[in-house]
Amino acid sequence: MLGRTHLAIGLAATATAVTNIHALPVSLAVAGVASLIPDLDERHSLIRRKIDTAGIPTGLILLLATDAGMYMYVYIRLLSALLFAGFFVFAYLSPHRSFTHSFLGLLVFLSAIYTSFPQYIVPASIGYAAHLLADVCTNSGIELLWPWRKRFGLHLGQTGGVLDVLAGSAAVVLLVLEIVKKMI
Ligand SMILES: [Zn+2]
């Protein structure tokens, strides 16, 4: 699915799951980023277009430098830094919808988060898992059990097609309703 659809679904799912209104803004921010992370393996994805320069994979250098910097200044633990580094390198090198769209990728990313930011594990899990669930619905499917290269998909529609429009629109409506409901 498209990046904006993943973002809308991840935010809507998080707004539904998080009951504490005070925790909602940070939770939405974490889930929003996590919902885009799996598509680090696609050079034309929303997240890669934000961090790469002119189609050159400079985003990987940026991510690894940020990772190293956060470790140096003790914002994250060594295990987190290593897991993030491994995840980012694999994400950039592996084919689209393989490692980052698998249970193994999910486990590595969430372990990196949990080791240093256990308070963000719920929104990070929701954002990332919602991405995988949404992509499973598409015709091309995902390699859920990577390194086994079999693709799993429900063939409900094509990326960028009607499925994206319907899922994205429904998610935006749900997101707005959930936020309004929590504010009143
Ligand atoms: Zn994806």
From TrEMBL:
Pfam short name (any one): YdjM
Keyword Transmembrane included in the entry's annotation: yes
Residue spans crossing the bilayer: 70-91, 103-122, 161-180
Alphabetized UniProt keyword annotations: Membrane, Transmembrane, Transmembrane helix
Organism superkingdom: Bacteria
Name this protein carries in UniProt: Inner membrane protein
Organism: Caldanaerobius fijiensis DSM 17918
